[in-house]
Write a structure and sequence with these properties.
Pfam families: DUF2291
CATH architecture of the largest domain: Beta Barrel
Distance between the termini: 125 Å
Order of helices and strands: HHHEHHEEEEHHHEE
Number of domains: 2
Radius of gyration: 32 Å
Helix content: 40-55%
Number of helices: 8
Largest sheet: 5 strands, mixed, barrel
CATH topology of the largest domain: OB fold (Dihydrolipoamide Acetyltransferase, E2P)
Shape: elongated
Structural class: alpha+beta
Strand content: 15-25%
InterPro entries: TM0957-like_sf, UCP033535_lipo
Keywords: Lipoprotein, Membrane, Transmembrane, Transmembrane helix
Organism: Nonomuraea jabiensis
CATH superfamily of the largest domain: Envelope glycoprotein gp160, DUF2291, alpha/beta domain
Protein name: Putative lipoprotein
């Protein structure tokens, strides 16, 4: 009697298995992929920070009222700083984070002097004789006093330090356009003026205020 060998099971080549797995993966990826048009992709992308728009939206509507509402009489502030700088800073000032100099919103009345090098000196009654008070009148407006004194603008609202700095510059630009471009500083020499603004404390003997109002 003749016997035959059992039919051998045909083995699938490994390369076929790998190819099938890749094909399944491609199908699954295609099912899970969200296809976007150019318009939807652009809408989903992070919006680029626009300093000019930020300044226009915030300066007159938010920053100026915030500084006016929190402004303390300059002689009162300087007296408090002389007594206890840290206590005065905590009571009247604002600063980003827990370190760095305080920025103060202030107001006062005094006699204007002759403008020079972008600064208008003001003699304010009740201010120590060794303290020089000046208002920035441009054309260059320096510092971040408006941004920091407003109290609601924080670093966390921006992508990076450059945008945070650009926000301060944009507010300064709005100040120049809204208040300073039409200011006749020469006509103020010797006259009594009232001002509101903000300054960052570097030394109590030099108070350089970025104004939001001069009358």
């Amino acid at each position: 009697m003749t016997t035959t060998e059992p039919a051998r099971r045909r083995r699938v080549p490994p390369r076929w298995i790998a190819a099938a797995a890749v094909a399944v993966l491609v199908v699954l990826m295609a099912v899970d992929t969200e296809y976007r048009t150019v318009e939807t992709a652009a809408a989903a992308a992070p919006k680029k920070f626009d300093p000019a728009a930020f300044g226009a939206q915030n300066y007159q509507a938010k920053v100026v009222p915030a500084i006016q509402q929190s402004a303390v009489d300059l002689p009162v502030l300087l007296k408090a700083l002389a007594a206890d700088k840290d206590a005065a800073g905590q009571k009247y000032g604002k600063r980003p984070g827990s370190s760095g100099p305080y920025t103060f919103a202030v107001k006062g009345t005094g006699k204007a002097g002759k403008a020079r090098s972008g600064l208008l000196p003001v003699t304010v009654e009740g201010v120590p004789d060794d303290t020089r008070v000046s208002l920035q009148i441009g054309p260059a407006i320096n510092g971040t006093a408006l941004r920091d004194a407003a109290g609601y603008i924080t670093f966390g609202q921006f992508t990076n330090q450059v945008e945070y700095a650009d926000a301060a510059t944009a507010l300064n630009n709005e100040l120049r356009a809204k208040l300073l471009n039409g200011l006749d500083a020469a006509a103020l020499d010797g006259k009594e003026i009232t001002f509101t603004g903000a300054f960052t404390l570097l030394t109590p003997q030099t108070v350089t205020i970025t104004p939001v109002a001069i009358t």
